[in-house]
Amino acid sequence: MALPMLARADIAPHFCDDTRYYYMPGIGRLFRRKVVHCIDALPAGETVLDVGYGMGVAFLALARRFQHIIGVDIHDHPHAVAESFAGTGIHCTTQQGSIFDLPLEDNSVDAAVAISLHEHLPEDRQRRAFQQVHRALKPGGCYVVGVPGVHGLMTLAFRSVGWRIELDHICTHGKVLDTMKQVFDVDETDYWPFGLPKRFTGYVVARGWKRKDTASDTGEPS
Description:
Layout: H1 20-23, H2 27-40, E1 45-51, H3 59-62, E2 66-73, H4 78-84, E3 92-96, E4 109-115, H5 126-136, E5 137-148, H6 152-159, H7 173-183, E6 185-192, E7 203-209
Parallel strand pairs: 1-2, 1-4, 2-3, 4-5
Antiparallel strand pairs: 5-7, 6-7
Helix pairs in contact: 5-7
């Protein structure tokens, strides 16, 4: 599936610089591919939560699988993003909020996705983030997490396009996945490029399911 996206001219102006990589030749294909890979791992449903949605790069693709998209992000431009999708016919609700304290009721969404978010979270707060998503999911709900590799080769690759990711990516994909497995039942983990040692992964997508027990639903650190 090719990633459907807004024309760059239609993006909320606050995000023009942040999303330029998705529209670049070559590297843009890699950026778009990671989004498609994450969405392909999601089962279809009624409501999906996109945590850290940014300018809504995944919204048009998510709308093919879900009737309603809820976006939660810490930035303060939710209304501008919603307006940029006003003419697309999709049903999306965007709001300001943190993954550490999601502004959602318990058991309220069928699925959730976080594309390139968890690597920005401190290692000691990863569990809190996963517990909050677990709380918001309906019984049997699914959470898909996409995380870039955090290692020397990846750092050099991003420096070639002018991005010092070592300043932003503060948690390794290994630590993210280890914590996810403490809260969710992870049944699928795909590494890209295929065939390379996991320590040199470019991107990893993990799919987890809400556990039947409620011990990890409190949202409190353990």
